[in-house]
Amino acid sequence: MSMRIAEKAVTLCEKLGADYADARVERTLSTDIRLMKDTFDQVASGAEQGLGIRVLYKGAWGFGSSTSLALRDVSQTIRGAFKAAKATALHTKEKTRLREVSPVKEVVASAVKEPMQSIPVDRKMKLTLEASEEATKVDKRIVSVTVTYSDSSGETYLATSEGTRLVGRPSRGSIVIVAVAKEGTKVGTIRERNGMQAGFELFEKIDPLGLARRGAERAVKLLAAVPAPSGRFTVIADQKLAGVFAHEAVGHASEADHVITGESVLKDKIGQRVGSDLVTMYDDSTYPGGWGTSLYDSEGVPTKKRLIIDKGFLKGYILSRETAAELNMDPNGGARAQSFAYRPVVRMSNTYLTAGGQSFEELLEGVDHGVYLRGSRGGQVDTAKGTFQFSAEEGYLIEKGQLSKPLSDVSLSGMTLETLMNIDGVANDFQITIGLCGKAGQVVSTGTGSPHVRIRNAVVGGK
User: Fold this and answer.
1) Contact (CB, 8 A) for 53 and 81
2) Taking 80 as the threshold, does the pLDDT of residue 225 lie above it?
3) What is the CA radius of gyration of the chain?
4) At what angle do helices 71-89 and 2-16 cross, to 10 degrees?
5) Distance from C-alpha of 259 to C-alpha of 268, rounded to nearest angstrom
6) 231 vs 233: CA distance, rounded Å
7) Cut 0.85: pTM above it
């Protein structure tokens, strides 16, 4: 029935005179649970459905969405989108073109053993409670634990005027633990999270109790931290912080819409050296079970393991059909929408730096006086200027190849291309982490990954 609605929507667009149209119909079931200080302050299960329609008319887009799938409401939404496209076409000098792709017909489903919606909510609540208890018993100085459980599953249907017909049955779940330790006036806060695209069985694989325990142990260690030094140091960044750098500083700069508008430091640098020969980076929509994995993007284009940087040389961008046409490149499935209520834009999927050949201990051995940084509390990036600043969750002094004093309130900042060039060590301990990425008013699921990396002459700051 849902595919018939999408097909009827596309047919109506064509009758109105659209040059191209696509319709996405989605039905999503979700559960969200939050436990704060042993109290469940949120236990919610919900269902959402709707349709999103894109219309291209004389080189201009129109978009509309509706939470009602009744034929009358769908028709009204379509006519509104077409009217917007016609009005925009009158005032648009640069006409939108789409790179040609072959239509596809396929059903894509997540591998699921225990469907999310077959699991009683009290079992999901029990999981969050057990994780909270595990973190709390680590140390009496743990004063607060917040556990957030989320899952979603459902069906998606895509129909295009070019003949693409795609059915998707996604399923994913995640757990996030925030542990707070306090002693006197000192406070340490750590967040641990993990998730996968799978059924409820994923929680047997990602070990929520171990995740909670590690978060609490790290929070307690922060109570002994001393103020961080400021200046230029050799820095070793852990998998999470290096992964955030790859995503925020490099990944966003490789999104083709930023490149086209001049908001990327990577503009006009295809084939040029942008990093040391130890730097290889992908945006990979095919990563098994990845948080940002999908076989097709929101335009119905097959996705890829996109090579962004190869041994220091820039090789490609993340592309939608529209940006691929403008840059005269082949589309690679990089257009994503948060849901039916949003139009697809160029987005990352699973973005990561690849593993090298050294151990973490070997990276340390090469540092006489430096800083080790773990985790990320967020930060700021200017993709046009190529600058960044990230606050780490933890820091440690490195003295004569050994970790010593823990550091508080420590950050890493610098120029993106300079930092890539100064990577002189890459470990063999690759990890990938789940995350959420915001852009154009939309939030999508992404993965960020890296091994430990060593960076010469990096800027470290403390309060």
Assistant:
1) yes
2) yes
3) 24
4) 40
5) 8
6) 6
7) yes
